[in-house]
Amino acid sequence: MSASPQIVQGVGSTAGSTVCAPTRVKDAGNSNLGTFGVKSGLAQMLKGGVIMDVVNAEQARIAEEAGACAVMALERVPADIRSAGGVARMSDPQMIKEIVEAVSIPVMAKVRIGHFVEAQILQSIGIDYIDESEVLTPADQEYHINKHAFKVPFVCGARNLGEALRRISEGAAFIRTKGEAGTGNVVEAVRHQRAVAREIRSASVMTEEELYAYAKDIQAPFHLLKETARLKRLPVVNFAAGGIATPADAALMMQLGSDGVFVGSGIFLSGDPAKRARAIVQAVTHYNNAKILAEVSENLGAPMVGLTIDANLKGGRMAERGW
Amino acid sequence: MQDIQLATDIIIGILALQGAFAEHQAMLQHISRKGHLEVIQVRTPEELKRCDALIIPGGESSTIALLARLSGLIEPLREFVKTKAVWGTCAGAILLSQAVSNPKKGGQELLGGVSVTTTRNGWGSQVESFEAPLEVRGLRDADVPFMGIFIRAPVITELLPAPHEPPIEVISRIPDSLLPHRTTPDGDPTQTVVALRQGRHLLTTFHPELTGDNRFHEYFVQECVVASLAP
């Protein structure tokens, strides 16, 4: 019998997690793969860019031609998930593979919160990033995926600093606001971005004693909170997501401190997807240049129909999923 | 270390259309030097005009090329590359190469300037991204390895300097023993080249800007920028 490979426990793994979740197996040839450095590093390469939701290879090509820095492969965009109702799951791997074949930019895909087998499947087909996403129906009401256990990196949504740091503690290498997906209404993304920024500003002037108490208060790991306070920003890349529909929305999120944006339903449910996609890409690069923002905002055709976020919102508040 | 001596004020631009440009800026701002070194982000032809040298960062090469086209920067960048020092990392290395063997469908624009052919995502998808300590010729403390961070990195497939062009100097190769699968994609030794110089241009397929080690940035300023400005 050969010796079993050494199992490397991730920072956030707990006793027993290696029994059911995939493990990062360290053997001589692969010891340098899937480090946190290359996971968070890919997110750094996406900065200043736009990640677009696409549902087939044809849309993926339109997104790439329009300058997307990555695409998110999914079966239905969030607005359609809202109107269709029912349980939303990981997409068909065949469809994801077609999208991977069609483009040269990174391809991401979504898994349900806590559904580590969907994540194992996506890792095995060579996806570049996984979004453990509240847009799909959660598979676990208590636990998120132990993301340290994977070679493939994860992005997760957050509404505030505590939630962001809990996800990073579990191994997320990239954070995005949750916003309210599928609404075309940017108000929740703004709320989440401002909340994170405000909490980082307060933490950055706290004494060590205050940080201990604050870590307890926001339910964040102390060492990550301390590092965030020192850096005066999240220790990983932070994008805006959820409700971005126009170039001005994208530039707004950039001026509020986002490193880049995700656009879900806003592109392919609008009147002229290719043109709008390209305009949003330019808006993210030139977010501080109102003259260019005005030029690219001209004649984009009809934006997606927006939804008011209130008690009657069809499909409910997705941002409240995740813990 | 010795402070880098700058005879005149130097402006180094970082192409800031998309990608990890802020990281390069932070690294350059920590270089110890005498004299004035200004670092600016470049998004317009006017900003490019002010620069004595340029860094093209990592990001997505197809996105950066499109944004350069839409911002009216493609031709000014091609002219810039002909006369001034330029360093391309990862996506920047693809943009500086004279040909890319697997562009996005429908092709993608390049700037050229370095006589190599590259392959995008040559090692595979993100799950094949890796780190490896490298020996680099010419760096300060060259016996201390430099950590190479390879993220969906391109692979250099051909070195093709023409007789009238400056020679290509390979400054770092990755040993087979450190490759994730112990071999290059095609088993071709050219593919182990991960850093090279041609004249005033520097090309790295990995990301020195993601380390805490600014020896590559020093090297670029000293060996490419200052040397190219010398009378």
Task: Describe this structure as you would to a colleague.
- Chain A has 323 residues and is of the alpha/beta class.
- Chain A is built from 14 helices and 10 strands.
- In chain A, the strands form 2 sheets. Chain A has an 8-stranded parallel β-sheet, sandwiched between helices. A two-stranded antiparallel sheet of chain A has the order 1-2.
- Residues 1-30 of chain A have low confidence and may be disordered.
- Chain B is 24% helix and 29% strand.
- Chain B has a single domain, classed as 3-Layer(aba) Sandwich (Rossmann fold).
- The mean pLDDT of chain B is 92.
- Chain B starts with a strand and ends with a helix.
- In chain B, strand 13 (193-198) and strand 14 (201-204) form a beta hairpin.
- The interface between A and B is large, with 45 and 46 residues.
What's this, in brief?
The complex is a heterodimer of chains A (323) and B (231). Chain A has 323 residues and is of the alpha/beta class.
